[in-house]
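Worked example 2:
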Amino acid sequence: MRWGPFLTFSVQKEAGFRFNLIDLGLICFLSITSWLLLPVLKEGYLFLIPLYIGYSFFLFCNVFRIGNKLEPFWYIPFSIALYLLIQKPNLFWWIILPIFESLKFILITIKIKSGSYHGIFMNK
């Protein structure tokens, strides 16, 4: 874990879990955003979308550290699905979660098997 004003903006080269003040701030911001969206997007639990997106990227960037090359394979289809499924909020989570949680698992597995993995639980 990296804490402190000088370590907040530096890139962590060593392997493992990464967490800094900016990450904490982003998590707080997304939590507050979702809470503020609750009265507006209550139907279908759509107010949870900012948290889902933020925590997905936290998982990709800080926990498993899959890198920028694999992220588009998750966020481009997710953006398209989000745009299409926002019209039917009751179906949203039933379609999004199975597809995109499976896709996350596949991308994380690809990164771990790639040989360049440096996220959490890395074999040294």
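Residues 58 and 109 are 16 Å apart (CA to CA). The mean pLDDT is 81.
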